[in-house]
Amino acid sequence: MKFLTKKRVVLFLLFIFPLICFLLLSLGENNFKKLPIVKANIIDVYEIDATKSTQLKENVTIVCFLGNDVNSNRSGLFNLNEKIYKKFIEYKQFQILAIYPNGKEKEVENLKQEIGAFTDMQKWVFMASSKEEIEIFYASFSYDKPLVDLASSNAFLIDKKVNLRGRLNDEDSKDGKLIGYNMNSVSVLNGKLKDDLKVLYYEYYAAFKERNENKADRKEVGL
Fold it and tell me: The organism sits in which domain of life (predicted)?
């Protein structure tokens, strides 16, 4: 074809194609969808932590509830450790918080040793609290599935502003809401929780980038 001369192909590759790519990337950033907040301003665990050493604020946190039978969620915790924790341990301000009732310290210590056999436990946090305080904290999620003996097979994603995150159009949920991620399902952890964590971290990256660009713009105009 006469139209596709060598010169025109070179010009397209050098100038037109990069411009198209730039426009597509720009549109992608502008239309980026944030991970939905399914419950704003839940209780921070700092309020139910007797040691006052743990908090949700300014952290991206995966919360799980061990219950009175600590080993009932043992396999789920190992899944969480392998599929999520080890993938995000290098991410800033990331933690997994496992809450258990007072009096279960020995069982928890054994569990920690098992998980920690081949894992750097620096971002695993185990916190004891009373039955009443655990129930009050969980109730702040406004989740319609109650704890069973203070335990849940689900893990919950909390953002830096202490909002519960999840999905509002999940294809596998009857009402479209995905609030907790089933720790016993490798496909849920791999295909949903991991993806949602990446989306949340991209939110923070995009916000950080925008702030820096705004600062640069103000500096240029002398503000």
Answer: Bacteria
| For residue 27, pLDDT beyond 50 | no
- Give one DSSP letter per residue of 147-184, joined into a string: -BTTEEEEEEEE-TTS-EE-BSS-TTSTTS-B-EEETT
Closest C-alpha to 100, from 162, 151, 46, 47: 151
> pLDDT tier at 30 (50, 70, 90 boundaries)?
very low
DSSP element (H, E) containing 5: none
- Per DSSP, the three-state class of 103 is coil
Q: Is residue 106 part of a domain?
A: yes
- Classify residue 108: in a domain, yes or no: yes
pLDDT attached to residue 208:
85
CATH of the domain at 73: 3.40.30.10
| Rg, the chain, Cα only | 22
What's the total number of domains in the chain?
1
Look at residue 31 and tell me if it is in a domain. Answer: no
| Encoded tokens for 151 | 């335990």
pLDDT higher than threshold 80 for residue 216: no
Report phi then psi at 180, rounded to 5. Answer: -115, 150
Cα 86 to Cα 199: distance, rounded to the nearest angstrom: 17
Identify the domain containing residue 194 by its residue range.
37-208
* 69 token code pair: 């039978």
CB atoms under 10 Å from CB of 12, counted, come to 13
Instruction: Please say if the pLDDT value at position 167 is more than 90.
Output: yes
Q: Determine the pLDDT at residue 210.
A: 76
